């Protein structure tokens, strides 16, 4: 007999990054359907859903509403780091857990967040370590004007400098802004070897379109390779042919050319992971996340999350978009997350790096 538990879903169906949220939402709902149909598990999930509509000011109130007005203690959602940081105080207030299934910039370890996707040592560092010897050392950074863009550029600047490279430009625009003339003009003048694109949603699609136009000009048929740690298959349709040639890093790419990418797949896996952590353990859904992970490990399940920092071990895959599909260039075996980059320049340490404390 299955016991049914409420889980929250906090993902936007509209707004400037709707394609990302749409893929994640479908992944959550697929995971719920699979768990509910799995007779080897004694848990089933009932979805309590709220739509923030891509508006930052709605995330915290809607998170509070889910935790206050339902039995849900585990919420799947948030796309931007800004929205994740908005809900953490509500998770702390009500003892909830956010299952965060998208890449982020690191430098965080909350006992109320399950970081299921990749952090910089699992995406940005491997991507730059491939790009600098392969493409050249003249870099240009462009990003959305919030913590994701800022931190990705900061980490990348350190890595490029360590490789004796040059950062030719580091520019930011507001999330959703598509006024890119000044950035395209600067890229035209500087001719970087590669561009780290940390723009989100509509801003990214507009940038790729403008850059594709620049590449048609004389003298720009080579170089200007775009690198990304957050562009997946779920955005190919929105970006169109302008994204061709983009090189992305992440833990998973569609093997058969699907459209969900890692945003869909990691969201789906996250639902399964929670179900396995709760299987055979009535009442465990109210445990603190670190205790839930540690106790599940003691009962024979090998959790995806590291109990010391609540980040998942993930492979690092580098792939290039060609003819609308990502083709793998390089793959690293699953890497333990190092959210504070204590090993980023080669220091070796096999023991726990970080303990989550309240």
Automatic annotation (TrEMBL):
InterPro entries, per the entry: Peripla_BP_I
Superkingdom: Bacteria
Protein name: Transporter substrate-binding protein
Source organism (scientific name): Neorhizobium turbinariae
């Amino acid at each position: 007999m299955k016991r049914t538990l409420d889980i929250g879903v906090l993902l936007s169906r509209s707004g400037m990054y709707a394609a990302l949220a749409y893929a994640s939402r479908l992944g959550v709902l697929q995971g719920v359907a699979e768990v509910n149909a799995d007779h080897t598990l004694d848990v089933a999930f009932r979805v309590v859903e709220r739509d923030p509509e891509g508006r930052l000011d709605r995330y915290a109130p809607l998170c509070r509403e889910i935790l206050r007005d339902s039995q849900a203690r585990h919420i799947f959602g948030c796309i931007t780091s800004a929205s994740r940081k908005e809900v953490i105080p509500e998770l702390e207030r009500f003892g909830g857990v956010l299952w965060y299934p998208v890449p982020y910039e690191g430098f965080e370890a909350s006992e109320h967040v399950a970081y299921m996707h990749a952090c910089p040592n699992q995406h940005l560092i491997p991507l730059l370590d491939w790009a600098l010897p392969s493409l050249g050392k003249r870099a240009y950074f462009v990003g959305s004007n919030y913590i994701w863009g800022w931190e990705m550029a900061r980490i990348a600047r350190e890595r490029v400098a360590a490789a004796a490279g040059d950062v030719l430009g580091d520019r930011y625009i507001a999330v959703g802004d598509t006024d890119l003339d000044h950035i395209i003009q600067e890229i035209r003048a500087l001719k970087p070897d590669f561009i780290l694109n940390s723009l989100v949603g509509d801003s990214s699609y507009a940038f790729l379109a403008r850059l594709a136009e620049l590449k048609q000009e004389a003298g720009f048929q080579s170089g200007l390779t775009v690198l990304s740690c957050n562009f997946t298959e779920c955005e190919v349709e929105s970006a169109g042919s302008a994204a061709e040639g983009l090189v992305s890093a992440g833990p998973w790419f569609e093997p058969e050319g699907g459209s969900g990418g890692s945003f869909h797949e990691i969201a789906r896996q996250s639902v399964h992971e929670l179900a396995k952590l709760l299987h055979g353990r009535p009442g465990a859904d109210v445990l603190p996340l670190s205790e839930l992970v540690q106790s599940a490990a003691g009962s024979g399940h090998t959790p995806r999350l590291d109990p010391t920092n609540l980040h998942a071990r993930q492979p690092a895959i580098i792939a290039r978009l060609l003819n609308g599909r990502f083709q793998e260039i390089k793959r690293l075996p699953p890497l333990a997350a190092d959210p504070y980059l204590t090993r980023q320049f080669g220091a070796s340490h096999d023991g726990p790096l970080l303990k989550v404390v309240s």
